[in-house]
TrEMBL record:
An example molecular function term from Gene Ontology annotations: methyltransferase activity
Name listed for the protein in its UniProt record: SAM-dependent methyltransferase
Sequence ranges assigned to domain Methyltransferase in this UniProt record: 47-137
GO biological process, one term: methylation
């Protein structure tokens, strides 16, 4: 299948090498790791990391003793992930996985749904993840909140630009988000309720949903909390306690949805 060339160009800039390692994005990284360590089967299980980028999560999963296979459509990502200890990586598309049925103990889609604006493609990717996992294994999908662009735009000052502001407001209606900045992000942002129907149409049961960052990613001093180990643990604990509160799900920048195949 053909990847959107603009999305491919965005990722070929190499930003995924450091995105989850710097600034407030570390909150997304640590919270994703926190949830995965609770929902994945014990190591040494076989984890299929679909759209795993340069291996930010594959790296710690392998270190935890998991057998990790990463599949990604971006050649740069595959090369860098393949160099990680204990990680195998190859090119592939989430909508047509080059793996046998039931060969994995868990499947992660921690990026593909961001870049499939057509609902049928998102359901197909979820269906493929379900096919790849043994019965009873978890399928974990990450989505970006429908409201993230407006929140982020206010936080970072992009909302002052009339063209970007209009694009973000269109995204609230359609889910299709387009950055007006050169080389900026293009993707699909979910309403938290929307993912329930997509899982159902993929033959998966109603997923548990976890808001990753809560409102904390919008705090001006969140970097200070993340820099200090003691304060960071307090922050992560607070986010954990509110992670599945329905009224707060959309405030998070990212959500995880987890169901068993």
């Amino acid at each position: 299948m053909i990847m959107d060339p603009e999305v491919l160009g965005y990722y070929e800039q190499g930003g995924e090498r450091t995105r989850l390692r710097q600034g407030r994005n570390r909150l997304e990284y640590w919270r994703t790791r926190d949830v995965l360590r609770r929902v994945l089967p014990p190591a040494p299980a076989r984890v299929l990391d679909v759209g795993g980028g340069t291996g930010a999560h594959a790296e710690w999963l392998a270190a935890d003793g998991y057998e990790v296979e990463l599949i990604d459509p971006v050649p740069l990502h595959v090369r860098e992930a393949a160099a990680l200890p204990g990680v195998s990586a190859r090119l592939g598309d989430a909508r047509d996985l080059p793996v046998p049925s039931g060969g994995a103990d868990a499947a992660l889609l921690l990026g593909p749904l961001y870049h499939l604006p057509e609902r049928a493609d998102r359901v197909r990717a979820l269906t493929e993840a379900r096919r790849a996992v043994r019965p009873g294994g978890p399928v974990v999908a990450a989505v970006i909140s429908r409201f993230a662009a407006v929140h982020d735009g206010i936080y970072r000052g992009f909302h002052l630009d009339e063209e970007q502001r209009a694009a973000d407001y269109r995204g609230l209606e359609t889910g299709v988000m387009v950055s007006c900045r050169p080389g900026g992000f293009r993707g699909y942002f979910h309403d938290p309720e929307e993912i329930l129907g997509e899982f159902a149409d993929a033959g998966l049961p109603r997923p548990d949903r976890y808001g990753l960052e809560g409102a904390f990613w919008l705090y001006g001093d969140v970097d200070d909390w993340l820099d200090d180990e003691e304060r960071r643990e307090l922050l992560l604990d607070a986010a954990r306690r509110m992670e599945s509160e329905p009224s707060l799900l959309g405030v998070s920048g990212h959500l995880l949805a987890v169901a068993t195949a």
